[in-house]
């Protein structure tokens, strides 16, 4: 797993939309902001992607690259390449994202009221083939429950059981999402011009502009 202030690794992606195929190692010399999202993630479209668009607009004349990484760790029947392509091509939303944005009056002619004007990569989503669910469960817990060892034994057993059941039911894994050990979507990766991972955030509402300005000044 790439750690902040250590070299970033290339994304493992299946296809690019809205731009030519590229990767982190191909763009040394330019800082990169990557917004990670899912198709079936209302918050990604109300906050996450608009944040990335704001950064792109603010630094449009700078060397900064802004990319999207569409991934899937749940709802695989909705979070797929076909539905991603609908969003990129026409702004057509599906699932909970459509329901929430429509209820809030955030759609125009039943479509997303903005376009995603930066390249978007589709994560390499492949079938799961675990050989050791217990080891995978402990690795999962280490990532998402850093205070796990301090929990009461009863709670530890319950969490371990729930994680084991989740992993056994999990049909697919998203290579880039897993490689960066992201906690969910939206998430943001910020990489400097030397290919060093300088920031990794889960959620939205972070003030990304000063972080980008800092990288551009280096």
Keywords:
single chain, 218 residues, alpha+beta, Glutaredoxin, 6-stranded mixed beta sheet, two-stranded antiparallel ribbon, 10 strands, 36% helix, globular
Provide structural commentary.
The protein is of the alpha+beta class. The protein contains 7 helices and 10 strands. It has helices at residues 42-58, 81-90, 95-103, 133-144, 153-169, 175-179, 208-216; strands at 13-17, 32-37, 65-70, 107-108, 111-112, 120-123, 125-127, 172-174, 187-191, 197-202. Helix 1 (42-58) packs across helix 3 (95-103).
Largest sheet: spatial strand order: 1-6-3-2-9-10
Proportion of strand residues:
15-25%
> CATH superfamily of the largest domain, called what?
Glutaredoxin
Shape: globular
Number of domains: 2
Treating each run of at least 4 consecutive H or I residues as one helix, how many helices? 7
Structural class: alpha+beta
Largest sheet, in brief, is:
6 strands, mixed
CATH fold topology of the largest domain? Glutaredoxin
Indicate the CATH architecture of the largest domain.
3-Layer(aba) Sandwich
How many beta-strand segments? 10
Low-confidence spans: none
Q: What sequence of helices (H) and strands (E) makes up the elements?
A: EEHEHHEEEEHHEHEEH
Summarize the structure.
This protein folds into 2 domains: 13-127 and 173-216, Glutaredoxin (3-Layer(aba) Sandwich), CATH 3.40.30.10; 129-170. Helix content is 36%, strand content 19%. The chain has helices spanning 42-58, 81-90, 95-103, 133-144, 153-169, 175-179, 208-216, and strands at 13-17, 32-37, 65-70, 107-108, 111-112, 120-123, 125-127, 172-174, 187-191, 197-202.
């Amino acid at each position: 797993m790439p750690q902040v202030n250590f070299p970033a690794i290339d994304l493992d992606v299946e296809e690019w939309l809205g731009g030519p195929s590229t990767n982190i190692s191909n763009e040394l010399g330019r800082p990169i902001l990557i917004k990670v999202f899912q198709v079936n993630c209302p918050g990604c479209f109300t906050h996450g992607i608009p944040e990335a668009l704001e950064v792109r607009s603010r630094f449009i004349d700078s060397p900064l690259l802004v990319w999207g990484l569409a991934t899937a760790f749940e709802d695989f029947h909705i979070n797929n390449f076909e539905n991603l392509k609908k969003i990129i091509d026409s702004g057509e939303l599906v699932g909970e994202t459509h329901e929430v944005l429509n209820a809030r009056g955030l759609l125009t002619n039943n479509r997303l009221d903005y376009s995603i004007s930066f390249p978007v990569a589709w994560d390499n989503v492949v079938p799961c083939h675990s050989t050791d669910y217990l080891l995978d469960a402990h690795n999962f817990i280490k990532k998402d429950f850093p205070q796990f060892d301090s929990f009461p034994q009863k709670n530890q057993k319950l969490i371990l059981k729930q994680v084991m059941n989740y992993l056994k039911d999990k049909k697919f894994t998203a290579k880039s999402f897993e490689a960066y050990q992201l906690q969910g979507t939206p998430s943001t990766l910020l990489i400097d011009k030397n290919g060093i991972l300088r920031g990794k955030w889960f959620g939205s509402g972070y003030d990304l502009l000063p972080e980008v300005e800092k990288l551009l000044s280096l």
